[in-house]
Amino acid sequence: MKDWQGSLVSVGQVDDLAHYLNDFLARPLPLRADTLDSIIAGLADWAQALGPELGGETGLPFLKTWWRASQLKGVLRHEFGADAQQGPLDCAPVLSERGWAAVGTVLHWPAANVPIQPLLSLTSGLLSGNRNIVRVPAGLVTLMRKMLECAPPGMMDVFERVLFLAFPSDRRDLAEVCAGRSDAAMVWGGREAVTQVRGLSFPHWARIQVFGPRTSAALVLLDGHLMTQAGELKKLCRRIARETWQFDQEACSSPLALYVQVAASTPAADEAEDVFLQMLAQAFDEEQRAHPRHELSARTSVDIAKARADWLLDDRQARVIASEGPAWSILHGGRMNREPKLFQGKTLNVVSTGDLEAIAARMDSSVQTLGLWIRDHDLEQRVARTAQHQGVDRVVRLGMMHVFNTPWDGHDLVRPLCRRVHFISTPIERSADA
Length: 434
Fold this sequence. Notes:
Elements lengths: L7 E3 L3 H12 L9 H15 L10 H7 L2 H12 L17 E5 L2 E5 L7 H11 L3 E5 L5 H9 L12 E5 L5 H9 L3 E5 L2 H8 L8 E5 L3 E8 L1 H5 L1 H16 L9 E8 L6 H22 L7 H17 L3 E5 L6 E5 L13 E6 L3 H6 L5 E7 L3 H14 L3 E4 L20 E5 L12
Parallel strand pairs: 1-5, 3-4, 3-6, 4-5, 6-7, 8-9, 8-13, 9-12, 11-12, 13-14
Antiparallel strand pairs: 2-15, 10-11
Helix pairs in contact: 1-7, 10-11
Keywords: NADP
Organism: Castellaniella hirudinis
InterPro entries: Ald_DH/histidinol_DH (IPR016161), CoA_reduct_LuxC (IPR008670)
């Protein structure tokens, strides 16, 4: 691995960690007018260097897209304004009446189930001009080392702002050392991890950004146009399959449940859902051949088999459409008011409903993203307004559930890690003999 100043360090003792942090925080950072452009260019070059040697790591295509210069500049324009100063680094190092400053040091605590998340979280800390402490989950250390090896020489200056640390998640003593030296935190993960990090002894002024455990769903209206256009129906099913496959259904934006309403005017309405399910199964099978699951733990295989069996045993009208092995599953049917048992592992619950708007009204803030395929504009608007009123942050067209921008989970990504500063220079009158 290249000898980056921001290389990954494994720590096990409090004194060693304190030494690393004190040295890191004492390191002077350059104040140059081109710092923001340098960071954006460095990330864009790094994205290009993340090649096939990394394999099919979950989310890697997304990270490469996220690090495009046009994408990052778009995030800044959206959050700060097209004609305004776009953060602390987008200016010469001089005081002005109103401007932006970094909060200081940001602790990034990514979840272990999304491999790109340490670098995804870090991006916000870099664009906001902060120092960054990135705690790398144990299961991602090997991948992070490989990704650091891909970093181009232009990242040397950028890495002056970063310290990657590896230590077990249950080492509260080490986590406390990091929290005590942080002015902000970006926390990702499940309820237990979020609660743990929130309970650390941060300074009272610290800003805590939480991206906690959430789920996502999709709503589809099978109308007459869709059911008579085989090409459009196939396109819809392909999009649903790809939404399910990305991130191995472990991301908060992955659909776990799909609610389907057959419009009253649909020809052969009683057959429409069967036709849709057959084409959806074909799309799942095609996606499996294109992006096969290479590794599957015995525990996951057992959980998938149990989820299929439980679905069938709970209701005689339920059915399972699935691959011969545990590659993918579609759980469908049963009572109209039956709540799906949400399960990951490329397992999609398809629930029949007579009222998509009523489904949206049952949602709450635990739902992050809602994917829609509704040609009826008025119904689409009502469903979207209802869902957002209930607490859903993102309502998008199916095919865009993983196409993130800012805001994310209802938060801006860069602005919360900045301070809005105010400086007024008052001329001092001096006497003639001074």
